[in-house]
């Protein structure tokens, strides 16, 4: 026959006062933690998509700055002959918006080309009407990712400065 250990009253009282978590409490805590982790993981694709869009816009702005700098340094009278000589063939850029040589197609991510001039250049006026731009030409700078179909068009207005 087995004997039960004899405990004093002081020992019995101290055993009852020891606190612990029950299985139900641990289960609820794990469910709350799991819900939070799943919610954070669900937000990651949204954040990554926003980051990718912001980076793409920044690179396009850098490309537009590069192309418009070339156009601004050109004489107004040379514009038509430049486009006729191949100005529309385009430029290649890497993933940071740095211009590449036309032969460096392996690293090229973006392509830009200049189209135009657009006939009857007009800009919207204060009252919503279109205002003619005498002595100005509007060119379109097309920027696109090489392996995707979407292209973005940016107007570039060039004034005849008499140069």
Describe this entry's structure for a reader.
- With 163 residues, the protein is of the alpha+beta class.
- The chain has one domain (21-159).
- Helices cover 41% and strands 24% of the residues.
- The chain contains 3 helices and 7 strands; from the N terminus they run αααβββββββ.
- The strands form 2 sheets. The protein has a 5-stranded antiparallel β-sheet with strand order 2-1-3-6-7. Strands 4-5 form a two-stranded antiparallel sheet.
- A hairpin with a 5-residue loop joins β4 and β5 (130-132).
- The radius of gyration is 34 Å and the shape is elongated.
- The mean pLDDT is 80.
Summarize the structure.
This protein is 41% helix and 24% strand. By secondary structure, the chain is of the alpha+beta class.
Strand order of the largest sheet: 2-1-3-6-7
Mean pLDDT metric: 80
Q: Give Rg in angstroms.
A: 34 Å
Largest sheet: 5 strands, antiparallel
Domain module tally: 1
The helix/strand order is: HHHEEEEEEE
- What is the end-to-end distance? 116 Å
């Amino acid at each position: 026959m087995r004997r039960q250990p004899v405990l004093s009253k002081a020992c019995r009282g101290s055993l009852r006062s020891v606190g612990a978590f029950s299985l139900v409490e641990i289960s609820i805590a794990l469910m709350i933690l799991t819900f939070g982790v799943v919610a954070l993981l669900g937000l990651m694709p949204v954040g990554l998509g926003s980051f990718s869009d912001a980076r793409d816009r920044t690179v396009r702005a850098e490309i537009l700055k590069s192309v418009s700098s070339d156009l601004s340094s050109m004489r107004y009278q040379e514009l038509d002959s430049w486009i006729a000589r191949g100005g529309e063939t385009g430029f290649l850029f890497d993933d940071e918006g740095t211009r590449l040589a036309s032969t460096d197609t392996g690293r090229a991510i973006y392509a830009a080309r200049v189209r135009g001039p657009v006939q009857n250049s007009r800009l919207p006026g204060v009252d919503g009407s279109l205002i003619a731009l005498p002595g100005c030409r509007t060119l379109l700078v097309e920027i696109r990712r090489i392996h995707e179909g979407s292209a973005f068009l940016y107007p570039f207005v060039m004034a005849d400065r008499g140069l």
